[in-house]
Design a protein that fits this description.
ten-stranded antiparallel beta sheet, nine-stranded antiparallel beta sheet, alpha+beta, 50 strands
Length: 788
């Protein structure tokens, strides 16, 4: 229960700045015999001490530690209360506290050590450094734009994420490669917006380990903590330091059992406030002589350069103050109060803050072993004691901030507006499978949602602000991670979607102790531009295709039903057919042929071999199998080799990489590219003649999210043999191939204006439709993607 509460607290943590909401906890007087304080300081901080003790009593905070430095000297460090209530162990300035998100600037420091050494490039795509089978899923945008810098400043497009494992669950915690496959979902255009993401820093700590050849904890210890003299700092708690760590407590003063996460770089570091203030001193260039210069002053300054605006786009983000920015691991504020570099953190049993004022040479570090507001509120009192007039300036600043928030907020809508009215359908993509999702926006302002086969539910707290739709709904996402604790029949689901024309896409977050995000994409089903038809693998061509329940089985049947302005939505699956649409369309109406989920619809001109081959008697390298279907081509997918056709079976013995199909005997003869038995290869057989999807003399047709593979057989045209294409656009006008892929075809995506075509006229075709572009021929071993 306590670890679940920890996850919920982490979701609403004061990730960087003090959240507006007040924490409610029972008042608690110091226990008899409890230590008052341990530390040093002078009368500058007498009022601050009294404020700390009062707040600890009112909020029931077991212990609190603070350290303050100015101009390279620690001028106050002090600890209050119990590090361990049950064992009556007092807190000291050397007590190690769970830092939660204050781990992020520490992880960023380790990252920059490797950047300075040339081991990592901040502006390189993160996938360059990830394992081949553990790349992020970039649902929208360009994977090349998902860089290390954007992971570090929370603009990579990842969604919110908090994933905790109790001590009992740790044996079932997957390797980070698997976690990336599950939750490395880029759900917004890279660079489009700031979205605080713990998982981004989980990926960064993973890259630190992969690049250094050490574990994340070992690298930080050897390359950051020990060189900086931070002897009471550790990623998680090393066995030799466990006795110095403060126990984490929940709101009822019950110890929270140990827990960990799949984003160590975001939240796993423990440190004493003595060490943390010295960490801040190093970053300000005021470190002590015993600290090694693990980073140059230029690099440290670069980390404090604002590269992402944290201004909220939804009112739910009000804990991120307008005007705040993010750099590499640091929050940056620069206003009438001066420049402030900081980071805060909070989760179950932890609250911490580090603040640096470069112009004043001040560093403040504070932490408690219960989630509370004290590390944020107390910094105001400390700065007021050190900087004359600071309290008055702060009050004026807060007043202006509140006014600016009201006047600068773009109009929001509590009820649906014209952009959203109607029905939207799509799916939630999870590692365990896909779940259908529908949203219905009513004229009355009500919004109804249905997830999978669950009952319809209302969407609460719905808003449309700056093109972003947010809302909450009950529901249950059936994945092993989301249902691991089985304590709730339903999850609290949060919608965070971007309106892009007739598409809503982004994240749906399942909250039940943890906060797990998944890609979600919905499309408007009543565009008013025509009829929508459906194709899926459960349909039949005897249907009318007007709904998912009465869908067509083949794409060609759906295409045949279209009129200009209609939409054809194709469900996931492999479709073994040639599709042709000719002399169709209207330049005043867009006809859309799309995959319901981009990348899940594949037109195939081949099929897996699945044959039982036997060696031909008297032949060393020739194998034969019964095959009733005419074979037009043979492809070894594992070697990316197209076998050449031979005149007869005898010719196969004298050269590798050939095939012969005996139609009369219904037998296929094969000589593999490496003379090995065919069963050692993953082979496919070309069984369809012609192109995958052929648009001929079409006008304003859009193909979106489709794939084509296995169309490798030349077709006769008069006396010529022409290679077939995955997609062929011939004599088209204003036609678009968008987010489509073609692989293992004779030609990939071929754009051919042809005689009499207008596609190359200015203002009509453009790059999307291939206007003025040459034909793009694609070897069988390569593929090319055209994307708008």
């Amino acid at each position: 229960m306590h670890s679940i509460r920890a996850g919920l607290v982490a979701l609403c943590l004061a990730c960087c700045l003090f959240p507006g909401a007040m924490l409610t906890a029972k008042a608690q007087e110091p226990a008899p015999g409890a230590p008052g304080t341990e530390g040093n300081g002078d009368e500058w901080f007498a009022d601050v001490r009294r404020k700390i003790l009062q707040e600890m009593a009112e909020s029931g905070v077991p212990s609190f530690a603070v350290a303050v430095a100015r101009n390279g000297e620690i001028i106050w460090e002090e600890a209050f209360g119990w590090a361990d209530l049950q064992q009556r162990i007092p807190a000291t300035v050397q007590t190690m506290y769970s830092l939660a998100s204050v781990s992020k600037p520490i992880t960023a420091t380790g990252l920059m050590v490797l950047v300075e050494r040339g081991k990592l490039d901040l502006d390189a795509p993160a996938d360059r450094y990830l394992a081949r089978d553990a790349k992020m899923k970039v649902w929208i945008g360009d994977p090349e734009e998902v860089t290390l810098r954007r992971l570090a400043n929370h603009t990579a497009g990842l969604a919110g994420h908090a994933h905790f494992y109790t001590a009992e669950e740790i044996p079932f915690k997957p390797r980070m490669e698997e976690s990336i496959r599950r939750y490395g979902n880029v759900v917004a255009l890279p660079g489009e917006r700031y979205r605080y993401s713990n998982f981004g820093y989980g990926i960064l700590d993973h890259l630190i380990a992969r690049t250094s050849g050490m574990t994340y904890a070992e690298f930080l210890r050897d390359e950051v903590f020990l060189p900086l003299g931070m002897t009471r700092t550790s990623a998680d708690i090393a066995a030799e330091l466990a006795e110095f760590a403060a126990v984490r407590y929940d709101d009822s003063d019950t110890p929270i059992p140990f827990y960990t996460t799949d984003h160590a770089g975001a939240s796993a570091v423990y440190a004493s406030m003595h060490d943390l203030v010295r960490f801040g001193m190093f970053h300000l260039g005021q470190g002590s002589p015993d600290q090694k210069a693990i980073l140059s002053q230029e690099t440290r300054a670069a980390m404090r350069v604002a590269t992402a605006c944290m201004a909220p786009v939804n009112l739910a983000d009000l804990n991120l103050c307008p005007g705040s920015c993010y750099g590499i691991g640091w929050v940056i504020d620069d206003d009438e109060l001066g420049k402030r570099i900081s980071h805060g953190g909070g989760m179950g049993g932890a609250a911490s803050k580090i603040l640096m004022l470069p112009d004043e040479g001040i560093v403040v570090a504070a932490a408690a072993n219960k989630f509370c507001r004290l590390p944020w509120t107390i910094e105001t009192d400390i700065l007021s004691a050190l900087i004359p007039g600071y309290a008055e300036k702060l009050a004026q600043h807060e007043r202006k901030r509140r006014e600016a928030l009201v006047t600068s907020e773009k109009p929001s809508h509590d009820a649906p507006v014209s952009e959203l009215l109607g029905d939207w359908e799509g799916a939630v993509r999870t590692y365990a499978g896909d779940f259908s999702l529908t949203l219905s926006f009513q004229d009355s302002g009500e919004i109804h949602a249905r997830l999978g086969d669950q009952r319809p539910v209302p969407v609460a707290n719905a808003r449309l602000s700056n093109g972003r739709f947010s809302g909450n709904m009950p529901g249950r996402i059936e994945t092993g991670d989301a249902t691991r604790r089985q304590r709730r029949p339903q999850h609290h689901l949060q919608l965070d979607l971007k309106l892009r024309g007739d598409v809503l896409d982004g994240a749906i977050v399942a909250v039940a102790g943890n906060s797990l995000s998944h890609w979600c994409q919905l499309r408007r089903t009543d565009t008013g531009q025509g009829t929508e038809y459906f194709v899926n693998k459960q349909g039949t061509d005897a249907h009318d295709g007007a709904s998912r329940a009465t869908s067509f089985l083949t794409i060609q049947a759906g295409v045949n039903a279209l009129q200009p302005g209609d939409t054809l939505t194709i469900g996931p699956g492999e479709y073994f057919e040639n599709v042709t649409l000719s002399d169709f369309g209207d330049l005043n109406k867009e006809t859309l042929i799309r995959a319901e989920l981009p990348g899940t619809v594949v037109l195939r001109g081949d099929r897996d071999a699945g044959l039982d081959f036997a060696q031909v008697p008297g032949r060393r390298f020739v194998y034969v199998a019964d095959c009733e279907t005419e074979v037009l081509s043979v492809h070894e997918a594992d070697t990316l080799t197209n076998l050449a056709p031979a005149a007869d079976a005898v010719a196969l013995e004298f050269g590798p990489g050939r095939f012969f199909y005996d139609a009369q005997a219904a037998k296929l003869y094969v000589s593999s590219s490496d003379f090995q038995p065919p069963e050692r290869h993953h082979s496919t057989l070309g069984v369809l003649r012609g192109n995958g999807f052929h648009l001929l003399k079409c006008r304003r047709v859009v193909l979106d999210g489709l794939a084509a593979s296995g169309y490798r057989t030349a077709v006769e045209k008069e006396v010529l043999l022409l290679p077939t294409s995955g997609f062929l656009l011939h004599q088209t006008q204003q036609c678009v191939v968008r987010r489509c892929t073609a692989f293992f075809n004779a030609s990939g995506i071929t754009l051919n204006s042809g005689v009499g075509s207008n596609t190359n006229q200015p203002g009509e075709g453009g790059e999307e439709s291939g206007g003025g572009l040459p034909s793009l021929r694609q070897p069988a071993r390569r593929y090319r993607r055209l994307q708008s």
